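Changelog note: in this version the structure field was regenerated for every chain. One regenerated record is shown below for reference.
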Amino acid sequence: MKREEAAEKWAALAQEIATHDQRYYQDDRPTISDGDYDALRRQLLELETAFPDLASAKSPSQTVGAAPAAKFGKIVHRRPMLSLANAFSREDIAEFLTRIARFLGSDEAVAIRAEPKIDGLSLSLTYVSGVLVQAATRGDGREGEDVTRNALTIGSIPERLIGSNV
């Protein structure tokens, strides 16, 4: 594939992904399956791997989530709240382990745990002296939505932590 064709395909994929991000993150009305969405992102990454100049800071491959919805207050995360990467094959896992070894500067085996990915809402919960004081969505990874009042209605999220040194 020539670069011009790749750039056109990349632009179309980026726009399609942006549309699906809007439907999923902002409208809460996705129109494609998670598998189909992941396939679009894989195609985009393949193009960026083959043509690295197509990637930029605004590329869907470099962003997570979406800007916080206007109907909620905003919370800036103390640390960026990033997304997990997907692995769909043994090759993906081997590449992941190679990246980890390179990062660690070691060829020693690394113990990992893998679980099936279950899509859903990510929350950052902040407790002070064991009391839930803040719940925020991931948002765009740097800034999320203040959903503290909503989180307090979820039975599996404790309002108060029990134990010592919480």
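Spot check on this record: The two ends are 56 Å apart (CA to CA). Residues 67 and 140 are 5 Å apart (CA to CA).
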